[in-house]
Amino acid sequence: MLREDTVFGPIFSRRLGSSLGINLLPRNGKLCNFDCIYCECGWNRDGQGDRAIPNADDVHHALESKLQACQDAGTPIDSITFSGDGEPTLNPSFAEIVDVTLALRDKYYPKAKVSVLSNATMIGREDVFKALGKVDNPILKLDAPTTAQVRMINNPSGAYEVSAVVEAMKRFEGDFVLQTMFLKAPSFRSGDWVEGWMSLVRELKPREIMVYTIDRPVPMAGLEKYTVEEMRALVQPLIDEGYNIQIKG
Q1: Domain boundaries, the chain
Q2: Among 36, 47, 73, 243, which is most exposed with the fewest C-beta within 10 angstroms?
Q3: What is the pTM for the complete model shown?
Q4: Which CATH superfamily is domain 7-248 in?
């Protein structure tokens, strides 16, 4: 169960290289409107001890201090990544913090990308949409093609409809990265609904797709990972159509 400081790393990311993380959520808890069966942070109920979230000033101080230290040490940074213990766009200061991060990136590591790992539930909010449009890599999650299947994997809280999320994603006009987890569970396999998922990919036409599988301990028992070869076979039709797909085991 991961519990991250406001700024942490850099760590090696399978998808982003040397990644300096920004956690906009509690340092000793978890705050998310998904409760994914594969979340490396554990179940939401296990992370309720802390509800304090950083504001823009907190992030500015912590990020500048870390970037200065990394620069002094000659530490490479490929991506400054909003991730952490839950959904980063739930932080009410998200848009302001993105602006702070971009300014500090330009000052210390101008070649680094700024990335956001998001479950895409808040992209209907105009401030979140505009902020995601400023970063280099808005990485938006869609793990299954139907609402019922998303509920099996991600356990979203409140109202959630895949169709509404897809329509909101279309506003990016393909200028985003689609992220999808492939896994096997006792009651389903992601590969069983890959045709429906590929149909949504063709609607959205993202500039890049990240397909990956579990790599760390997960809260739900019985989950199994796909091999890179299995995932490649599942998405081969999209590869043949020219889609840019990262496949990470």
Answers
A1: 7-248
A2: 73
A3: 0.93
A4: Aldolase class I (3.20.20.70)
